Amino acid sequence: MKVTAITLRAGNVIEYNGKLCVVLKNDIIQPGKGASVAQVEMRDLRTGNKDNVRFRTQETVERARLEQEDYQYLYEDEDGCHFMNTESYEQIAVKKDVIGEPAVFLQEGMICVIETFEAEPLSVTLPDSVTLEITEAEPVIKGQTATTSYKPAILENGAKVMVPPHIETGTRVVVKTADGTYVERAKG
Description:
Strand order of the largest sheet: 1-6-2-3-4-5
Structural class: mainly beta
Distance between the termini: 49 Å
Order of helices and strands: EEEEEEEEEHEEEEEEE
Largest sheet: 6 strands, antiparallel
Shape: elongated
């Protein structure tokens, strides 16, 4: 779908010079004399390289249509992480570097949103938080519960997280998948 450069917004995905790029910023520059230009900052979705491009405001660019579908996480092997489409039951393998750091929080049966372009996975969005058990933490020290200092702990998936001093080994906690931070003690 062709759109004018002036209408691009952050988050739009465009095809530019044979590459798939996500728009990070679009500033309209109006010089003292001459025509206005759209200064577009974008990042290549496949390589991660950033680029700044100037378009004439009426110049058209090709906006890409991305598919977003729910997939269930199955398992991981040398090919990557395997997911199954929840509607068509079709399976897809996604390389770990496409998922990024949140890959450590993948759990069997977890429902994730995978964004694809022409059947190529571009990004995987995990649920906002996961509940995991603490397998290793420093012992609780009486009287230290009032302080705001956090202590390091290791989750059942091997990830490290900073938790409040009252959390001990065997406690189930809720952790944000985006950055691996402690949210709260799991209820129930």
